[in-house]
Amino acid sequence: EVDNAALFAVGGYGRGLLFPYSDVDLLALVDTPSPARLRALEQFFATLWDIGLKVGHAVRELSQCRELASSDATVFTSLLDARRLVGDPAFDATLRTIIDDPQLWPPADYLAARLAERDARHARYDDTAYNLEPNIKDGPGGLRTLDSLRWLGRRLVHAGGFEDMQVEGLLDPAERTSLCEAETTLRRYRYALHLEAGRPEERLLFDYQRALAARLGFEDEHEKNLGVEQFMQGYYRAASQVERLGVQVAERFVEMLEPAGDEEPVGADFVRYGRRLAARDPELFMRRPAALIEIFIARLDLPGVVGFSADSMRRIHRATAVHEAMLATDPDALAAFLRLLRRGAPAVDALWRMNRHGLLAAILPAFGKVFGRMQYDLFHVYTVDEHTLRVLRNMARFAD
């Protein structure tokens, strides 16, 4: 029976993206949930379970669908991915009226809900992509971050993909390429993990890491560059790219919706816009590399500042890439770095943020060589760059 009813794929299935053991999420929309129709749907879902599919399903009237979507951002988000599989085509237009209703999760409210969800999700994983057994799907820098960027793009600027977001100025070509490459790596790892585990596992557990490295063609080069270490370095580098760009793009969305505020001078080179710090001259970081470190020092001195403007974050990253080969020998940059370390314990947060931008690896080339590396042996497993960061934290505390 297809009149006055339709079956939609939602979640990953709605996006046309399933991994070997992914759930198959379905939404049945009906005008009138008659007993006969409900029995037919119950038999249909039971058959899917009987053939071995793990099905997540819901049966709703349109009024119920709208009511739930209006009160739950997760339900509303699931509708953004909805794709009709079979049934009355009129439900496509009806569902569209729910998604496009400006009163239903206005952009500012939807952004706040998604950022709150992100923060709560990341807190479960210690707010770092460098967990030794990371969650590829939900951890910081995981695939859920990429999904969230697309959802925000669709709701806020009607740009559901990275290509559209580039057109809207939310991504530049290099950032789009970085996200796509990182996503390819994460998808490949997740696919292999499902096959290795034989179930819907999302964590790169120690039990699977060596086998996954071999499955994906990583080989031991020597005792200090094991295949499993190369494999995990690939994950950490991809996740760190997604985490960094996820923060930057989210900040661009925030700035789209929040007035910049009055400009307040901060020394000769920087200005403050409300809670954000920016360079007075857009070309400052290109012209004077030491300013790359000085802006992190300035941030320490400004109570109430939560970070840099989205444009400044983008310019920091670009300038770091341009100056990378010479930052370690630039006397002004090194002097600024020492001034930062002499701030003592407060410098710890700045070092962590500099690492996110790739700036720490540029100033300390030895750190760059181990970025994303892990030391893997039977008794002691740790990420090498996290170990080096601990050393830097101790240096900062000693200087304090």
Stretches where pLDDT falls below 50 for ≥5 residues? none
- What about the largest sheet? 4 strands, mixed
Strand content: 5-15%
Cα shape = flat
Q: Report how far apart the termini are.
A: 74 Å
Strand line-up in the sheet with most strands: 3-2-1-4
Based on CA atoms alone, the radius of gyration comes out at: 24 Å
Mean pLDDT: 88
According to DSSP, the number of beta strands is: 10
Helix segment count? Answer: 19
Indicate the structural class. alpha+beta
Query: Order of helices and strands, N to C?
Result: EHEHEHHEHHHHHHHEEEHHEHHHHHEEH
The percentage helix is 55-70%
Concise summary:
The protein is an alpha+beta fold and 400 residues long. Helices cover 58% and strands 11% of the residues. It has a four-stranded mixed sheet, with helices on both faces. It has a four-stranded mixed sheet with strand order 5-6-7-8. The protein has a two-stranded antiparallel ribbon with strand order 9-10.
Q: Can you give a write-up of this model?
A:
This protein has 400 residues and is an alpha+beta fold. It has 19 helices and ten strands. Strand 9 (374-376) and strand 10 (381-383) form a beta hairpin. It starts with a strand and ends with a helix.
Q: What distinguishing features does this structure have?
A:
11% strand; four-stranded mixed beta sheet; 10 strands; single chain; flat; 19 helices; alpha+beta; 400 residues
